[in-house]
Amino acid sequence: MARRWLIAMLIGAVAGLTTALAIRYLRSPETPAAPEAMEIVTPDAGPAVRYALAFQEGDWDYIIEHTLWIQERLRYERARTGEAAGSEAARLTISRELGDRSEPGNRLRDTGVEDQYVFRPGAAIEVAARDAGRDDLERPAADRTWLRVRFPTATNALYDASGLAIRAVTVGVNVSSEGYILKANVDGNLDVDWDSIVYWGVKAGD
Length: 206
Known about the structure:
The chain has 6 helices and 5 strands. It has 206 residues and is an alpha+beta fold. A 5-stranded antiparallel β-sheet has the order 1-2-3-4-5. The radius of gyration is 26 Å and the shape is globular. The N terminus is likely disordered.
């Protein structure tokens, strides 16, 4: 009788230990954490989001029509030449520049980076936050949308000034009350959250 009781106790102890280990495994730090809550971008999520998607889709007309400094440049060209041809020539030049993702320009520096290198095809874009935006730009911002941009591979990524491949970065798009994208950096239009940068750990050319 005592022997049966001892066997039953051992079986129960083993079962309990197995259950405890299973629970511990499921709660282990090795289990990937749930991703932070972020809003996936859609074309109707506002002008900042539509602007980012336009770069990915090559919709240069949308970008030209909704970027304040570009509109001012086109107005200047019309006034300077006195005819629409000057404005159209400037528009074509700007379209080519917007589509240029050549290697020399693919560097995030203290002065920023041109927007096409951030909102590149293949990058995942999510809305991270929204705030009132800056009041020290050419026009006060009505709002600013912060976008978390994740690059798919180290070879299809933005690089920092030293040539390291960036895995993810958060950038802010300031929008005026009229719906224009405002220029917020020396290079490009984007505010950069420098503390948000995560790296692939690969250098350009490696």
